Amino acid sequence: MIRNYRDLTRLEMEQVNREETIVLIPLGALEQHGNQAPLGTDDIIAEAMTRYLKKELEAQDPDFPMLIFPVIPVGLSTEHKNFCGSITFKPATYYHMLYDICASLAHHGFRKIALLVCHGGNAPVAQILSRELRSELGISPFILSSGAFSHPDVTATISPGNVWDFHGGEMETSMVMAVDPSLVKLETSEAGIPTAFKDNKALKPYGSVSIGWVSEDWKTTDGKPIGIGGDPSGASAEKGRIILETSAKVLVPGLMEIRDWTP
């Protein structure tokens, strides 16, 4: 049975099979997503992903053993800190905060923790944390990526010519619109491109040869730092529904194997 961690009483929690139950911890962020999308985009996506995952998992296993932890609303957003509204932990602060949460869960007997990464900047800390927790506490911390952005059904939602779609772009904006279109102001949107990288053959803001990009690297065609990738103007709620649904479906086989995982 999939339930919200915070909804259980202490007595109900004592009755949970904590050896087998997966605690899903959605890792969000509070940071700029351009002119058009809310600062809480990643948190909104994280909450939506838990609902889509619950639906997909229960369709295959009505008794799927999982507790959904509250979304962690602030993450590692160093790359966005110079844009108004963005909030970030220091890497060490973020690591230790997540470590303490996982250590508390382990103290109560939970052995399987799944970190649902809903902001790419959180991923490096999640990777380090997973290995350290396995080594030090002997638990199994798994890492899930919340967006199936390379899946053909997802890439098909990107408007023709929108070649740089990335953070705060058409896909993420669409995902928010699928949850609450009133939060998106498409009329104020502007497109962003990585000006310093766009003509490079090898050195890119991501890939096999890269540098830790910052929001200022993504600019409008007239050179104004905008902090997002691609053109959000083609976003729609229907596109967002496709992205969320596809992303959840992609994660289900892995979660089924986590359910059956025996270290």
Automatic annotation (TrEMBL):
For the keyword Membrane, the answer is no
- The UniProt record lists the keyword Zinc: yes
Q: Name the cofactor(s).
A: Zn(2+)
User: Which Pfam families would you find in this protein's record?
Assistant: Creatininase
Transmembrane stretches in the record are none
Keywords assigned by UniProt, alphabetized: Hydrolase, Metal-binding, Zinc
Q: Entry's Gene3D superfamilies?
A: Creatininase
Concerning SUPFAM superfamilies, the annotation shows:
Creatininase
Q: Which GO terms describe its molecular function?
A: hydrolase activity, acting on carbon-nitrogen (but not peptide) bonds, in linear amides; metal ion binding
Source species, domain of life: Bacteria
Extract the InterPro entries matched here. Answer: Creatininase-like_sf, Creatininase/forma_Hydrolase
The biological process GO terms on file are: riboflavin biosynthetic process
Report the family membership.
Answer: Belongs to the creatininase superfamily.
Kindly provide the name given to this protein in its UniProt entry: Creatininase family protein
Tell me the lineage of the source organism.
Bacteria, Bacillati, Bacillota, Clostridia, Lachnospirales
